[in-house]
Amino acid sequence: MHPFLNRILERTFRLIMLMASVLVTGCASTSITSDDLANTSASSVPASHRFNGTVNVQFLVVLTIPEPDPWDQHPYINRFMLKEAVEKAIVKNSQFTQVVQGNADYILDVWVFRQKLKVPPFGFGEFAAEVSSFWRLTRVSDGKMFGRSVNGLGRINSGMGPSTRSMISALQNMIQNGLTDLSDQPAAQLAVQSAEHLRPHIEPWVNNVRQNWSRLRAGLTLEEVEKIIGPVRTSGAVQEMLSDTTKFESDGRTFRLSGTNTYRYRSGIFTLVFRNDDTVASIDNFRLAGWKLY
Question: What is the pTM of this model?
């Protein structure tokens, strides 16, 4: 069977199953709360591995590449829910003395940059969800950091809302793995450095972007954009060259951009599109052509 036709049949069947579940149960999917995500199997951290200080948790969910299939999106899973879930898990595990929203002894930045859902043919079989993230802990007093890539995996075979439940399981697994890594001899690891440590702390960066977004205008270079809204290349945003025609909407305008003379940065809060109309493919020749704030 042709792949396109097979995909159409799969979506049609899943839509029928979804409508049937609504008629039978009165709900279309399993709802998610931060309590669900914080319900990990990790036990209380040993006293020798706890951090003697407060912590401020900051989250950013970076958009996936390529754009997710609409069937696989989970718009109700956002950075605020994930932040709250990690905070509850930290309290449950007694990992820090207290979770605070303002000034703290430690800052925990978490970037979730990949969410993938695998759906079995015709909706029968194993639903699998994968989540990839990077966790960075900073000790404010001396700026020392610890960073680690953290993945989560969830698998569900049957029952109501299997795709949602597999995503819940994957996020639970990610949170558990992240907190486990933090408690693994943390004091000795607060000096490890990597490219991800160059990223700005999430909350002040997001606030600065939103505050200065209105100052952006077409024709700016990437360097000029960074002077206005702060770091882009080192922010955790994902960069990609556009290999085919892409429709891009921004502030009521519609752009159709294509070819290797166009690239974009996508993060959890914005999309920036740069275009080069010159024959020389230098980064200095790329100019801001479209921008959108979420």
Answer: 0.72
